[in-house]
Amino acid sequence: MPEPTALPDIAHVNGEHAMLTEFLDYFRTVFLRKVEDLTDEQSRQRLPPSDLDLLGMTRHLADVERWWFRMVFTAETTVGNYESDDPDLDWHHGPADTIAEARDIWKVEVARAREIVAASTDLDTIGAHTSGSRGEISLRWIMIHMIEEYARHLGHADFLREHIDGATGD
């Protein structure tokens, strides 16, 4: 089995932009380590009573990256990766969907999000898209929300991965 992706360091003293970026990248890397060596069959395993699986979670996190950075912050796109009449299509994958494809899409979205954050050094910058329910949204809010999103789903991923093959840890 190949070595897992190395975890990035997080500086203990740093500016807010760098620290938020480092924490988000740390959680992204932990997530990648949870899914990088799974088979399609493993990625579809569920732990009842939940219907979550790591394939759906990978697709979901790809769309969350796309939504907040490319739709809300830059308004460079208005279409998600998984569009249909089903608003939860990211979670509701079909038999032809693969973990490799989902990981590749997730990697593209993460790479673009990193470019957007690197180019936007002012955390007070307001996103181009104003939400009807939230109003204006700053880059700071998006970064903190993304850290929260990954932290929440990494708890799910921990249970799923331990159930699949006993793997634990970051």
Structure keywords:
5 helices, Four Helix Bundle (Hemerythrin (Met), subunit A), mainly alpha, 170 residues
Characterise the protein shown here.
The chain has 170 residues and is an all-alpha fold. The model has no long low-confidence stretch (mean pLDDT 93). It starts with 15 loop residues before the first helix and ends in a 5-residue tail after the last helix. The chain is globular. The chain has five helices and no strands. It has helices at residues 16-35, 40-43, 54-73, 99-119, 139-165. It is 54% helix and 0% strand. It has a single domain, classed as Four Helix Bundle (Hemerythrin (Met), subunit A).
Biggest sheet descriptor: none
Please state the structural category. Answer: mainly alpha
Which CATH top level class fits? Mainly Alpha
Tell me the series of helices and strands, N- to C-terminal: HHHHH
- Arithmetic mean pLDDT: 93
- The Cα radius of gyration reads 16 Å
CATH topology: Four Helix Bundle (Hemerythrin (Met), subunit A)
Q: Compute the separation of the termini in Å.
A: 17 Å
**CATH architecture classification name:** Up-down Bundle
Beta content: under 5%
Give the count of helical stretches: 5
Overall strand count: 0
Helix percentage: 40-55%
- Uncertain parts: none
- Count of discrete structural domains: 1
List strands and helices in order, with pairings:
Blueprint: H1 16-35, H2 40-43, H3 54-73, H4 99-119, H5 139-165
In a nutshell, what does this entry contain?
This protein is mainly α. The protein has helices at residues 16-35, 40-43, 54-73, 99-119, 139-165.
